[in-house]
Amino acid sequence: MTFDLAFTEDADAESRLEALAALTRQTRELMDAVALTAAPEGELAEIAGELAVLTERLRAVSRQSTHPFHIGSDGTLRHVGNAVIGSGNPFALPLVIEPDPSTGEGGVRADVTFRPIHEGPPGSVHGGVSALIMDHLLGHAAALAGRGGFTGTLTLRYVRRVPYGEPLAATAAVARTEGRKTWVEGRIADQAGTVLVEATGLFITPTQWPPMRDAPSVAG
Ligand SMILES: CCCCCCCCCCCCCC(=O)SCCNC(=O)CCNC(=O)[C@H](O)C(C)(C)COP(=O)(O)OP(=O)(O)OC[C@H]1O[C@@H](n2cnc3c(N)ncnc32)[C@H](O)[C@@H]1OP(=O)(O)O
What we know:
CATH class: Alpha Beta
CATH architecture: Roll
Distance between the termini: 26 Å
Largest sheet: 6 strands, antiparallel
Strand content: 15-25%
Strand order of the largest sheet: 3-4-6-7-8-5
Number of strands: 9
Structural class: alpha+beta
CATH superfamily: Hotdog Thioesterase
Bound molecules: tetradecanoyl-COA
Order of helices and strands: HHEEEEHEEEEE
């Protein structure tokens, strides 16, 4: 398998990326408002029509693909189009990941507050959404330890239901390594430290990837 990290030199200007981030934040607000709206039928149809106009306006000037990796002005590796951290991806929570060396090799943490759009069982977060967050955070920990790769397996134990609208914390750190394989463990816990989700992931570094000893900080 070949995989090109696809760094780009001619990234958009920071000012355009900030404008895109503002549009993305507004779109997330829209998604939340749609999920919770109690507007009457006629108003829903009217708003859908207004949104169709805006959608066409954006589609008229589409890119061929989402934003690839690029190096930001502060040297940070950015992935604006990423589904979990991307500042230009409305689907992203987004997760803001910080290094947390106290939890071990590649240790990372992120504050997470899920929203009603993440609903699975009524009043709770969808298990697949928790898995998405865990997959990315565990993968980030592997990359931070200089052992970036693709998820081979991801195993979750859903210990308690995950609420939305409450501040939670997600953490991960490398558990062990063997050749190109890196096992990472993580969890989502509430503010009292009660574990809601436990995760273990196996990340495999493709043979073609160069060594990543000085892993850059990564942001959306
Ligand atoms: C610097 C930039 C970094 C930026 C990063 C920012 C953070 C981003 C964080 C993003 C996080 C989000 C991340 C995502 O969303 S990643 C997206 C989801 N994952 C994928 O799409 C992966 C698809 N699969 C593949 O590409 C290949 O199968 C991989 C690369 C995984 C292995 O293909 P490769 O050809 O290399 O493998 P090999 O055949 O030589 O086998 C090698 C060894 O591995 C063992 N094995 C193989 N497959 C599996 C498996 N599935 N489970 C368990 N074990 C497996 C195999 O038995 C052997 O073991 P051994 O016999 O040697 O003991």
